[in-house]
């Protein structure tokens, strides 16, 4: 099933089937996979507004995401880092006191 989208929503990895608007100004020679962002920019510069894509043939790379458990605020990270730093200072003090 094909889907109409605005050119601003077209991404690398999508399969372009046809140019919908404006049809009279520019004609697509061949449908195919969008491999480079440069292709999208070129279409925008030529005045293309709406395109038809085939989501089933898309090859969009998976986005790298951080697991939600490992997300923490900057403030929490600083607090943890300070605690580790303070602990290392205490270990160093004990080490030098023993020698």
Architecture blueprint of SSEs:
Layout: E1 3-6, E2 15-21, E3 32-33, H1 37-45, E4 50-53, H2 74-98
Antiparallel strand pairs: 1-4, 2-3, 2-4
Q: Flag low-confidence runs.
A: none
Q: Count of DSSP E strands?
A: 4
- Could you give the distance between the termini? 76 Å
Task: Count up the helices.
Answer: 2
Mean pLDDT: 84
Helix content: 25-40%
The succession of helices and strands, N to C, reads EEEHEH
Percent range for β-strand residues: 15-25%
Lateral strand order in the biggest sheet: 1-4-2-3
Shape: rod-shaped
Structural class: alpha+beta
Features:
4-stranded antiparallel β-sheet, alpha+beta, single chain, 99 residues, rod-shaped
